[in-house]
Design a protein that fits this description.
Oligomer: heterodimer
Number of domains of chain B: 1
Radius of gyration of chain B: 15 Å
Helix content of chain A: 25-40%
Structural class of chain B: alpha+beta
Shape of chain B: globular
CATH topology of the largest domain in chain A: Aspartate Aminotransferase, domain 2
Largest sheet of chain B: 4 strands, antiparallel
Number of strands of chain B: 4
Strand content of chain B: 15-25%
Distance between the termini of chain B: 51 Å
Number of helices of chain A: 14
Distance between the termini of chain A: 49 Å
Number of helices of chain B: 6
Strand order of the largest sheet of chain B: 3-2-1-4
CATH class of the largest domain in chain A: Alpha Beta
Largest interface: A-B, 19 and 19 residues
Helix content of chain B: 25-40%
Largest sheet of chain A: 7 strands, mixed
CATH superfamily of the largest domain in chain A: Type I PLP-dependent aspartate aminotransferase-like (Major domain)
CATH class of chain B: Alpha Beta
Radius of gyration of chain A: 22 Å
């Protein structure tokens, strides 16, 4: 399949769906799949699947070290993917794009290298996160604080599911060294005011880390316009395969900070007495990376670019607005997070009366509707809203209004069954 | 999927009107177990008199399967010998790991046979086992027997707190 097969011009969701083989699946003895779990992981278009197979069938080789035809092809494909990703997020240079395993590894990388070295964090320093973070943007900072003696602080969240910024000038102060927060919440759907928070952080000399796991897949993201210092996201939520993620960082920071993992490919020269390190980005890519996965992520970027990330964002907004309206008609349904489609992404978490999310999800699954039930790796934000778990429906470029209708009718059945 | 194959009427009855629910005094040991994947949790107390389980009380938050399972458990173990409870525990764990392939012994498991359908859904097995693992943990501590057993691995429920009161008089 080539890129010319992808629909262009007017957004035709039915045509796009034909690019995703799995969306034709039937489950549980014949009910059509209604996949509303894209914030968990997205489905993959044929282009990405074909790219994976083609890499292994035609170009498979290790990179940066094989002096043969396949080695050159594989290296070119891998570095080509890096350039595609860099262009997609507006990075000034592809050297600033580090391939990781996923967002978690990218965030752990930042937290670790900030802990080490002569410029490492120390007691008295403060790190600021928020109550709506995914566990992957909480635990690495807790670990860093345990190791360094730094103090972890966080923004609270309002009843409407927005960051409570009323104490921003006290919270982000001269002791603050890092402010790390999520761009689009995977639980609440909230889109946070990045520029405002980054401006305050930079005013006190703190670094800004943005978890863009939910935003890069569905919103135009430009790292220079956002004004952040580090940006983490993962491939599998943006049509790419699992096992490949990205850390973007400002060049002077990546150059100044120490390496993360040591090993092959990240060195300049090694002696038994000591080593010097490779330049960017290889300094942060020890060992053989997930090569085919990176190349396939490049294909996912091609797909999103061809459809148009603005068109993806517009569809996400439209389908989220439709879903918010439809869910308002379900009795006893309470949405966690903004209930209007303003500064809001396509993940809607909710409770349904006293029916437990596991039971809601089970009823929906029986009808082929795939949602997530639990705390979605965001236990603190669930506690903030006084619940231990919720049901989450999340959408993407292939989600249709009739799938939202299937969700709503499944919720009505769950209420009848357990009511 | 037929909803009724998982949600047998017996399960729904126990879910809507759980038996022996609520924390009671006196007790020998209190444990708190959580299911880390979904946040379901249970605080469970055990009171022994020699080898007899005189009371099991609990406070729990979770889905219909985990709530009903706790209710069924208490029916099976309260007033009985520890060994009879442990036999039921072994049979129930085996049933839940069977993927619906074995026919449970109703004389041992009574209402718990209704969970056969649940065993076909691996994602829900942990819900059904949460209270059983908590009970075994608490009973093991109260009776001084070794707590660890290979079938605990199946539960993936995490004991995160134990309060042991003075031993039973």
């Amino acid at each position: 399949m080539s890129l010319t097969d992808i629909s262009v011009g007017t957004y035709d969701v039915e045509l796009l769906r034909k690019d995703f083989p799995i969306l034709e699946r039937r489950v549980h003895d014949g009910v059509p799949l209604v996949y509303l779990d894209s914030a968990n992981t997205s489905q993959k278009p044929r282009l990405v699947l074909d790219t994976l197979v083609e890499f292994y069938e035609q170009h498979n080789s290790n990179i940066h070290r094989a002096t043969h035809a396949l080695g050159e092809e594989a290296t070119e494909a891998y570095e080509g993917a890096r350039m595609k990703v860099a262009a997609f997020i507006g990075a000034p240079s592809a050297d600033e794009v580090v391939f990781t395993k996923n967002s978690s590894e990218a965030l752990n990388l930042v937290a670790n290298v900030l802990a080490w070295g002569p410029r490492g964090l120390k007691p008295g320093d403060e790190i600021v996160i928020t109550e709506m973070e995914h566990h992957s943007n909480i635990v690495p900072w807790q670990l860093l604080c345990e190791r360094t003696g730094a103090t972890l602080r966080w923004f609270g969240v309002t009843d409407e599911g927005r960051l409570d910024l009323s104490n921003i000038d006290e919270l982000i102060n001269s002791r603050t060294k890092v402010v790390s927060f999520v761009h689009v919440s995977n639980v609440l759907g909230t889109v946070n005011p990045v520029a405002l928070i980054a401006a305050r952080a930079h005013a006190v000399g703190a670094l800004v880390v943005l978890d863009a796991s939910q935003s890069v897949p569905q919103l135009p993201v430009d790292v220079q316009a956002l004004g952040v210092d580090f940006l983490a996201f993962t491939g599998h939520k943006m049509l790419g395969p699992t096992g490949i993620g990205v850390l973007w960082g400002r060049r002077e920071l990546l150059e100044a900070l120490p390496p993360f993992l040591g090993g092959g490919e990240m060195i300049e020269t090694v002696t038994m007495q000591g080593s010097t390190y490779a330049g960017l980005p290889h300094k942060y890519e020890a060992g053989t990376p997930p090569i085919a996965e990176a190349v396939a992520l490049g294909a996912a970027v091609d797909y999103l670019t061809t459809v148009g990330i603005d068109a993806v964002a517009a569809h996400e907004h439209k389908i989220t607005a439709y879903a918010l309206e439809a869910l308002k008609g379900v009795a006893e349904l309470r949405i966690l997070g903004p209930t209007e489609p303003v500064d809001r992404g396509g993940a809607i978490s909710f409770t349904l009366g006293a029916v437990h999310p596991h039971d809601v999800a089970q009823v929906l699954d029986g009808r082929g509707v795939a949602v997530r039930a639990g705390h979605h790796c965001g236990r603190p934000i669930h506690q903030r809203f006084g619940v231990s778990a919720s049901t989450r429906a999340s959408f993407y470029l292939y989600t249709t209004e009739s799938e939202i209708d299937a969700l709503v009718s499944g919720l009505d059945e769950a209420k009848r069954f357990f009511g | 999927m037929q909803l009724e194959s998982m949600y047998q009427e017996i399960i729904l009855d126990h879910y809507r009107a759980p038996h022996h629910k609520g924390l009671r005094e006196p007790y020998d040991v209190e444990v708190h177990h959580v299911n880390p994947t979904c946040g379901d949790e249970i605080t469970l107390r055990v009171k022994l008199d020699g080898r007899t389980v005189t009371d099991v009380s609990y406070d729990s938050a979770g889905c219909s399967i985990s709530q009903a399972s706790a209710s069924v458990l208490t029916d099976l173990v309260i007033g009985r010998d520890i060994d009879a409870g442990l036999l039921a525990h072994r049979e129930f764990v085996a049933l839940m790991q069977s993927r619906g392939e074995i026919t449970p012994d109703e004389t041992v498991l009574e209402d718990a046979v209704a969970f056969t359908g649940v065993s076909k859904y691996p994602a829900r097995v942990k819900c059904a086992l949460l209270s059983w693992m908590a009970w075994k943990d608490a009973t093991a501590q109260a009776s001084g027997m070794a707590a660890s057993n290979s079938d605990d691995a199946a539960a993936n429920s995490v004991p995160d707190a134990t309060i042991t009161k003075g031993s039973a008089e």
